[in-house]
Design goal:
Elements (H helix, E strand, L loop, with lengths): L2 E7 L3 E8 L4 E8 L5 H16 L6 E7 L2 H7 L6 E6 L5 H4 L24 E4 L2 E2 L5 E3 L3 H13 L4 E5 L8 H13 L4 E4 H4 L5 H32 L6 E3 L5 E3 L13 H17 L4 E6 L4 E7 L2 E2 L1 E2 L2 E3 L2 E3 L3 E2 L1 E4 L5 E5 L5 E7 L18 H7 L7 E2 L4 E2 L2 H11 L8 H23 L11 E5 L3 H12 L3 E4 L6 H5 L5 E12 L5 H21 L7 E11 L6 E5 L6 H19 L8 E12 L22 E5 L8 E7 L8 E3 L2 E4 L4 E4 L3 E5 L5 E5 L6
Parallel strand pairs: 1-4, 4-11, 5-6, 5-9, 9-10, 13-25, 25-26, 32-34
Antiparallel strand pairs: 1-2, 2-3, 7-8, 11-12, 13-14, 14-15, 14-20, 16-19, 17-18, 21-22, 23-24, 26-37, 27-30, 28-29, 28-30, 31-32, 33-36, 34-35, 36-37
Length: 689
């Protein structure tokens, strides 16, 4: 008998999912996070599970976790003291950036806080040309002087980024050797090892972010590995990457920037897996936790990927699951602003002190306080009865901070808080759907996270979405997703050429180079050959354009037929994205991309037979609940989800409680429990919008 464990570290709670490989049962557990040392909550959780399940640490065959270490270091600006070495004439590139404001109409919005201290951006004489040839050899004496200067300035990490190194890395490799020789204790981040693509600012920014996070992640990995070994865990842990895959924790030391949205990506992978089981390939994920809401779009069973996104104001040019994050969670703080308007978030009370009702010293009203006052959350205990809450403290916080500063009554203030936070979350859903050419009504909304099922139906109704899917254990889906993730490496190369038959040999040469590199990386992860697969795509544009569209290739070995298909797909995608296309224009291939995937063992979820006469269990209590859009409190039955068996159908309103979350089914919604114990929640309140 062995156990697989997935751990998701959130801002408020740490979630654990355990799969027993013999009984094929899944057990979920949740405890408060320890932001000062995230590994502390992980170890405490594992030790608790050892006792609860009667298992031995040696029986743990797999341990993976989504980490917020990189994210928190960026948000809190607690990364390493770094320096940059670049080509002579380029040291101000991080300040120049794209020469555009973050917001076109906000003239006062400040630029992102610099992660490189003044005076630590250094140049060395050298120059590689755009064809990869060497124009000016590296001045090694100048390079040594720069390295010694940075050492004297007590930097902890050095980012090396020179012009056109993605075509010829000879100078960057030599600079890395010189740093190892003259400053061996420094962490080194080299651009061509991270980003094999053009666009210098994005490449330098990614390299600098990686250097900024390197020492922090290195220390965390060392501490985490020591901690789990002390508990008795023998296996080497894995960490989720931002693209939704897992890699050995030791690999994250070299590329910590790849874990920037580690935790939320696991939830998207879990959602795609469950959606496939339920026959729902098109899903918008709705992951609401204690600190934030994470929203992503899954089309045809595949999460959307972005190859570049802003991380704390700086571009990170690495593949990430396209997740929109807003400060809207259960711990988001409500307030009355200077103009008398009710605002919610993005500030959060986090795990400590948390919402006022947690009785940990919090005095600010949060979304959780509003839900307790409205009757949507248990007004005495949560987390399956393990954590007490105080309704009176919630009332006091809302009264003091909202009601006394406005004309709102307590119920109006609480309902207003929920309406505002719901509006914030609808904005995130529109960003991933409507703003990208999708109709949200064509998708099901999958709600998870500790607070997702609390708000999902009300948000879906406003958006015209008629179906909400709620997993069996929504509050721990991210940790379950860690058990569903494969190993994956996303590689890229910038090679600009026209999409013409005479360039097919050059195209295949680039793809073959990436296949060989991907194979080497999968070798390091010990993935058997039978469990490997490769998929390729290209970033294409019309000649003389400066923006690209990613087009998948049917096979990673290109023929004239496959190239012709890709060209036609590009024209169609251009029409969809920009409203026009022109088949007379030449199509240019810019970046080549390859995903090397290693399939890993996953839990096999069992589909139970439906019970034709399934009936609702007896309610635990009847609670007065005020739903969005209703004028008065409604007497609402409260059930425990353990009593919801396959085949059960019922009409709202109702509240469904379980250890990891609470689900709110408003009036005009109905539920059906499938064989995997997912709740299919359908709107019954009128005609299609």
């Amino acid at each position: 008998m062995s156990y697989m464990i997935g751990v998701d570290v959130g801002g408020t709670f740490t979630d654990l999912s355990v799969f027993n490989t013999q009984t094929e049962q899944i057990f979920n557990y949740k405890l408060s996070s320890t932001p000062q040392d995230p590994s502390q909550a992980i170890v405490t959780g594992i030790e608790t599970l050892l006792g609860l399940l009667g298992m031995q640490a040696e029986q743990i065959s797999y341990l993976a976790h989504g980490t917020t270490v990189a994210t928190n270091a960026l948000i809190e600006k607690k990364g390493a003291r770094i320096g940059i070495i670049t080509t002579e004439g380029l040291k101000d590139l991080m300040e120049i950036g794209w020469q555009k404001r973050p917001n076109l109409y906000d003239l006062l919005r400040p630029k992102a806080q610099s992660i490189v201290p003044a005076g630590l951006k250094c140049e060395v004489p050298e120059r590689i040309l755009c064809d990869g040839s060497v124009k000016t050899p590296l001045d090694e004496r100048a390079a040594i002087r720069v390295i010694r200067y940075l050492k004297k300035q007590k930097v902890q990490a050095i980012a090396v980024c020179t012009l056109f190194s993605y075509l010829n890395p000879v100078h960057e490799n030599r600079l890395k050797e010189l740093i190892r020789e003259h400053f061996p204790e420094a962490y080194v981040s080299v651009s061509h090892e991270l980003v094999h693509e053009f666009r210098e600012y994005s490449r330098m920014s990614t390299t600098a972010l990686n250097a900024y996070l390197g020492p922090v992640m290195k220390e965390y990995v060392r501490h985490f590995e020591e901690s789990v070994k002390k508990v008795g865990v023998k296996v080497s842990p894995y960490v989720t990457q931002s693209n939704g895959s897992i890699i050995s924790i030791s690999e994250t030391i070299d590329c910590p920037i790849k874990t920037a949205v580690s935790g939320p990506s696991a939830g998207v992978i879990g959602a795609a897996y469950l959606g496939g089981l339920c026959g729902l390939p098109n899903i918008i994920t709705f992951d609401m936790g204690g600190t934030s809401i994470d929203v992503s779009l899954i089309e045809d069973g595949k999460p959307q990927l972005s190859n570049e996104r802003l991380v704390e104001g700086y571009p990170a040019r690495i593949p990430m699951i396209d997740i929109i994050t807003l400060g809207a969670g259960g711990g988001s703080i409500a307030r009355i602003d200077e103009g008398g308007a009710l605002k919610v978030g993005p500030q959060s009370a986090g795990a400590t002190p948390g919402p006022a009702c947690y009785m940990r010293g919090g005095v600010n009203p949060c979304v959780t306080d509003a839900n307790i006052l409205l009757g949507k959350l248990n007004q005495k205990k949560i987390l399956g009865g393990r954590m007490e809450v105080d309704l009176e403290l919630a009332k006091q916080a809302i009264q003091t901070c909202i009601c006394d500063r406005s004309s709102l009554s307590l119920p109006e203030a609480a309902a207003g808080i929920i309406s505002v936070v719901n509006s914030n979350m609808m904005r995130a859903i529109r960003i991933v759907s409507v703003e990208r050419g999708y109709d949200a009504r064509d998708f099901a909304l999958m709600a998870f996270g500790g607070a997702g099922p609390l708000h999902a139906c009300e948000v879906a109704e406003e958006l015209g979405i008629r179906k909400v899917l709620i997993p069996p254990n929504p509050g721990t889906l991210c940790s379950l997703g860690l058990l569903m993730a494969d190993t994956r490496f996303d590689l890229s190369r910038s090679r600009i050429m026209l999409a013409q038959p005479e360039n097919i040999p050059a195209i295949n040469t680039v793809l073959q180079e990436m296949i060989e590199e991907g194979s080497d990386l999968l070798d390091r992860e010990k993935i058997p050959a039978a469990q490997r697969s490769f998929s390729a795509s290209v970033d294409a544009r019309y000649e003389r354009q400066n923006y690209e569209i990613n087009i998948p290739l049917r096979e990673p070995a290109v023929t004239e037929e496959i190239l012709g298909e890709a060209i036609q797909q590009f024209h169609a995608a251009h029409e969809k994205n920009f409203g026009y296309s022109n088949e007379a224009f030449h199509v240019q291939l810019v970046n080549f991309r390859l995903s090397a995937v290693g399939e890993v063992e996953k839990p096999a979820l069992v589909c139970k037979p439906l019970e034709p006469d399934a009936a609702l269990p007896a309610p635990q209590e009847i609670r007065q609940v005020l739903f969005v859009g209703e004028k008065d409190y409604i007497s609402t039955p409260v059930y425990h989800r353990d009593g919801f068996v396959p085949g059960l159908q019922a009409e709202g309103p109702m509240i469904i409680e379980q250890m990891d979350c609470t689900t709110v089914i408003p009036p005009h919604w109905s539920i059906f429990t499938d064989g995997y114990l997912n709740l299919h929640v359908n709107y019954k309140g009128g005609e299609e919008q």
